[in-house]
């Protein structure tokens, strides 16, 4: 049997449950006109400048990509004031996370992960046989004091997702700075900023500000999948001390980011008008969504990202399945240890109105009086 050939730490992995694709839903149920609010994608689509950049590169697809990603790395360095030789490109920021883990973690070493947080941390650590140390959130916030108490001589990495997925909460700057002062210098702190473009800069910190300070090594990961609308191209990056980047380059595949992805990301990075339009949509739509959810008597978690949690009066999977029948894809949060919560990202005004209308119908069809949550 093939299972006898698989190492126990691989056999124990539960595959990552992605948001259901629209195409799959419509194929299975024979419906059309579905909407998806399950994967924190940008409902406005990709940056127009990115689309133009992709088109201009199509005739070069018979050539391998620039393995160094020179122009994109150089622009990231210029835009954010970070060293170019500390920038590593990835097939989404997921790959940067995996590269850090593969480079610095081996069996017997520990990685501290807030719980719940992005599931890829857990899966990637399991893949290399490392030991996971989960620190529960406190009031849906990352518990920095709890993380400090969990550090041992075997700790190699600490993941800080800011804003945190799935809660959308952020850490105040002073709290993070006090935390860094107490982390041992031989521990890497990975700050995952996949949603940082949506956060209020006055209410939190930016990982880039801590790259060159004395103390623990800090690695910052970002993505073009969310605010920049390039999820389908899979392109992200990490910024870190050049000494750390040198080791990640030894581990990564030589052509890990495609030519269209590099071109699109480079163009999107300077499309400030599109980025601001994406932020404005989220800022304007969230208060309306909050109000509608409150009117249904449902509890929710305010967010600093483009998604938020809503607590259901029944198991979230029940609501999830009922919403699918209506052509609306949301995310049931069972895999995150939140069996009574769904998570939705902000859509267009039309999509948001349909979500609220459908949720009201589903709760009514399930015989749940609004206000009983």
UniProtKB/TrEMBL annotation:
InterPro entries registered for this protein in UniProt: Aminotrans_II_pyridoxalP_BS (IPR001917), Aminotransferase_I/II_large (IPR004839), HisP_aminotrans (IPR005861), HistidinolP_aminotransfase (IPR050106), PyrdxlP-dep_Trfase (IPR015424), PyrdxlP-dep_Trfase_major (IPR015421), PyrdxlP-dep_Trfase_small (IPR015422)
Pathway as given in its UniProt record: Amino-acid biosynthesis; L-histidine biosynthesis; L-histidine from 5-phospho-alpha-D-ribose 1-diphosphate: step 7/9
GO molecular function: histidinol-phosphate transaminase activity; pyridoxal phosphate binding
Domain Aminotransferase class I/classII large, residue spans: 35-358
Keywords: Amino-acid biosynthesis, Aminotransferase, Histidine biosynthesis, Pyridoxal phosphate, Transferase
Pfam families: Aminotran_1_2 (PF00155)
Broad EC category: transferase
Positions where N6-(pyridoxal phosphate)lysine occurs in the chain: 226
Source organism, top-level taxon: Bacteria
GO biological process terms, semicolon-separated: L-histidine biosynthetic process
Catalytic reactions of this protein: L-histidinol phosphate + 2-oxoglutarate = 3-(imidazol-4-yl)-2-oxopropyl phosphate + L-glutamate
Cofactors named for this entry: pyridoxal 5'-phosphate
EC number: 2.6.1.9
NCBIfam families reported in the protein's UniProt record: hisC (TIGR01141)
Subunit organization: Homodimer.
Family: Belongs to the class-II pyridoxal-phosphate-dependent aminotransferase family. Histidinol-phosphate aminotransferase subfamily.
Protein name: Histidinol-phosphate aminotransferase
Lineage: Bacteria, Pseudomonadati, Thermodesulfobacteriota, Syntrophobacteria, Syntrophobacterales
């Amino acid at each position: 049997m093939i299972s006898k050939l698989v190492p126990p730490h691989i056999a124990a992995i539960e595959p990552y449950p992605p948001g259901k694709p629209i195409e799959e839903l419509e194929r299975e149920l024979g419906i059309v006109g579905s909407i998806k609010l399950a994967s924190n994608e940008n409902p406005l689509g990709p940056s127009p400048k990115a689309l133009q950049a992709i088109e201009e590169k199509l005739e070069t697809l018979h050539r391998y990509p620039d393995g160094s990603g020179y122009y994109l790395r150089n622009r990231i360095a210029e835009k954010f004031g970070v060293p170019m030789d500390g920038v590593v490109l990835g097939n989404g920021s997921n790959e940067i996370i995996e590269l850090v883990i593969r480079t610095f973690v081996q069996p017997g070493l520990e990685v501290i992960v807030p719980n719940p947080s992005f599931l890829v941390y857990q899966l990637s650590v399991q893949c290399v046989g490392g030991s996971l140390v989960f620190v529960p959130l406190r009031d849906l916030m990352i518990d920095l004091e709890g993380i400090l108490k969990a550090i041992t001589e075997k700790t190699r990495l600490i993941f800080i997702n800011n804003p945190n997925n799935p809660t959308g909460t952020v850490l105040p700057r002073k709290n993070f700075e006090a935390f860094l002062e107490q982390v041992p210098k031989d521990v890497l702190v990975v700050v995952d900023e996949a949603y940082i473009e949506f956060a209020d800069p006055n209410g939190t910190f930016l990982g880039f500000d801590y790259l060159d300070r004395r103390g623990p090594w800090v690695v910052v990961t970002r993505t073009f999948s969310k605010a920049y609308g390039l999820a389908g191209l899979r392109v992200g990056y990490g910024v870190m001390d050049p000494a750390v980047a040198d080791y990640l380059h030894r581990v990564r595949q030589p052509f890990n980011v495609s030519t269209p992805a590099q071109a699109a990301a480079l163009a999107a990075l300077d499309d400030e008008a599109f980025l601001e339009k994406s932020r404005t949509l989220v800022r304007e739509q969230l208060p309306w969504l909050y109000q509608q959810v409150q009117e249904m008597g449902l509890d929710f978690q305010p967010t600093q990202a483009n998604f938020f949690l809503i607590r259901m009066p029944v198991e979230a999977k029940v609501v999830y399945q009922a919403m699918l029948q209506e052509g609306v894809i949301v995310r049931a949060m069972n895999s995150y240890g939140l069996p009574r919560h769904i998570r939705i990202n902000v859509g267009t005004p039309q999509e948001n109105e349909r979500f609220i209308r459908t949720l009201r119908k589903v709760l009514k069809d399930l015989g749940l009086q609004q206000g009983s949550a």
